[in-house]
Specification:
The protein folds into 2 domains: 76 residues, Beta-grasp domain (Ubiquitin-like (UB roll)), CATH 3.10.20.30; 75 residues, Orthogonal Bundle (DNA polymerase, domain 1), CATH 1.10.150. The longest helix has 21 residues. Strand 3 and strand 4 form a beta hairpin. It starts with a strand and ends with a helix. The chain is an alpha+beta fold. It is built from 6 helices and 5 strands. InterPro entries: 2Fe-2S-bd (IPR002888), 2Fe-2S-bd_dom_sf (IPR036884), 2Fe-2S_ferredoxin-like_sf (IPR036010), 2Fe-2S_ferredoxin-type (IPR001041), Beta-grasp_dom_sf (IPR012675), Diverse_Oxidoreductases (IPR051452). Its EC number is 1.2.7.4. One of its GO terms (molecular function) is 2 iron, 2 sulfur cluster binding. It is an enzyme of class 1 (oxidoreductase).
């Protein structure tokens, strides 16, 4: 199959490479760009382990073709924080025990990031609904919801202090 010139910005870094248009974004990220935070889970968009933020929307990268992502701005879990400077969501997932095995965590945090952009002051019901496309087999969700709500409170407190 013919390859296409593919440009994408991943976690603030511009990348250019040749890909097959039918290649899935998750495979380009993991195998060609070495961005391994998003995980390959179900490959049918049901589990959300592959969730990334693309052009300001949560997408499941296992169902996005490279051709669809050409020119996109993609943020993964790696783009949200560093080991020395965790994003508030990463910190709250840690503090509120919002993870166990960690397989779903990158997708959960990336989805929660976009959820809090869309709704900075969510209710518990808003969080449960907003995160419903991401599945976890370990935690029972209660601590994930607590972590997202605590993140919202922390982000709102920082915003209020800055005003």
């Amino acid at each position: 199959m013919d390859k296409m010139h593919f440009k994408v910005t991943v976690n603030g870094k511009q990348e250019e490479l040749l890909v097959e248009p039918r290649e899935l974004l998750i495979h380009v990220l993991r195998e060609k760009l070495g961005v391994t935070g998003p995980h390959i889970g179900c490959e049918t968009s049901h589990c959300g382990a592959c969730t990334v933020d693309m052009d300001g929307k949560s997408v499941k990268s296992c169902t996005v073709f490279a051709a669809q992502a050409n020119g996109a701005d993609v943020t993964t879990i790696e783009g949200l924080g560093t080991p020395d400077g965790l994003h508030v969501l990463q910190q709250m997932f840690k503090e509120h025990h919002g993870l166990q095995c960690g397989f779903c965590t990158p997708g959960m945090i990336t989805r929660a990031y976009r959820l809090l952009q869309e709704n900075p002051d969510p209710s518990e019901e808003d969080v449960r609904f907003g995160m419903s496309g991401n599945l976890c087999r370990c935690t029972g969700y209660q601590n994930i919801v607590k972590a997202v709500l605590a993140s919202a409170a922390e982000l709102n407190a920082v915003k209020e202090a800055a005003q």
